[in-house]
Every structure is written in structure tokens, then in C-alpha cells.
Fold:
Amino acid sequence: MKRPLHLSHDFLAEVLEKDSIALDATMGNGNDTAFLAALAKKVYAFDVQERAVQKTQERLAQLGLENAQLILDGHQHVDKYVDEPIRAAIFNLGYLPSADKSIITMPDTTLEAIGKILERLEVGGRLSIMIYYGHEGGDMEKDAVLDYVKKLPQETFATMLYQPLNQVNTPPFLVMIEKLK
Ligand SMILES: C[S@@+](CC[C@H](N)C(=O)[O-])C[C@H]1O[C@@H](n2cnc3c(N)ncnc32)[C@H](O)[C@@H]1O
Structure:
């Protein structure tokens, strides 16, 4: 069975084409940025940590990918940097395991960014949100995101949840959104 992270990529790959604009809202070590850059024309990638930008730069260089713009700023400021329609976007919420665990995504800024990205999503465009919530504050962010997504108008957005049901602790899960019109 596919893990949520694996499905999050498959869900976006299905709609990405060589002329697509993609967005990684939480760059971290650059795994998602590299995945998107291999499929899209251009990727906008955001993180608030200098270390994430460096790691991602190294990763892309190793892979010979030159079509990502790495932005050292919060994803809530996406409107300052992106005015093209977005085909596919991804969030990995929480903290970067290999870095400062006190730097986490926060409910208010996460929702602000999701709202701005959904506005800019093309019809047929998709957003994957991987929710990690085992850390302090993670539960609040999980609830805020689920509450927000549940209230999206069903005529405009299709939404799905993919979540392990019998795993102990707090396994990450995936929220998928597609813009319908
Ligand atoms: C779970 S990690 C992302 C992992 C990443 N997708 C990867 O492939 O390695 C979450 C990241 O979100 C970043 N972050 C926290 N608040 C942010 C914000 N407001 N805007 C953008 N990134 C943020 C953290 O610095 C951290 O690197």
C-alpha cells in the first residue's frame, strides 16, 4: 500500500506537465522541490531557514536541476513572489527533523498560505498537504487545516483525506485538494 508521502507525489505528478508552474511551500531538505523540478517548467520553493535553502541548493545541483527559485521567506508571502497560475503545490507541515525542531509551521501562516495558493491554483490544479502533528502545537495546526479544508465550497474544490487508521503514535497523513472551477 502506498504511504501518504508517496501518494502526495503521485497525486501531483498526474497533473504536472513540462510547461507547468509548481510550488513547494516547505522546502526543508529539498526532497519535494527536487521532485517537482524534475516534472515542471519552474518551481517556487519557500522556507524560513537559511539551512533549508542551502540544503535544497545542494540537492538540486547534484541532480543538475536549475529550474527552481529558492525563496528565503515564509510561504504566507507567496503573493509577493508568484503571479503565475500554479499547477501543483505541496506542504510538509511540522519541523525539519535534521534541523532546529523549534522552527515549525504555524496554523495562522499555514492557513494564510493555503488560501493564497488555492486562489492561484489553475482549474485542474492540485495541492497536497502532508500533516505531521506529533510535535507540540502540531495538533492545533492539524485541526485548523482540517477545519479549513472541510469548509471549502464543494462546487470549487474536491478534497480527500488519506490516513493510516491503526498505527500507534501520530503517523503523518495526507490532505489532497483539486480545483474544479
Ligand atoms: C517538515 S519540514 C519540510 C520537509 C521538506 N518538504 C523536505 O522535503 O525535506 C517543514 C519545513 O517548513 C519550514 N517552515 C516553517 N515555517 C514556514 C513558513 N512560514 N514558510 C515556509 N516554510 C516554513 C521549516 O523551516 C521546515 O524546513
About this structure: The CA atoms of residues 157 and 179 lie 5 Å apart. The two ends are 31 Å apart (CA to CA).
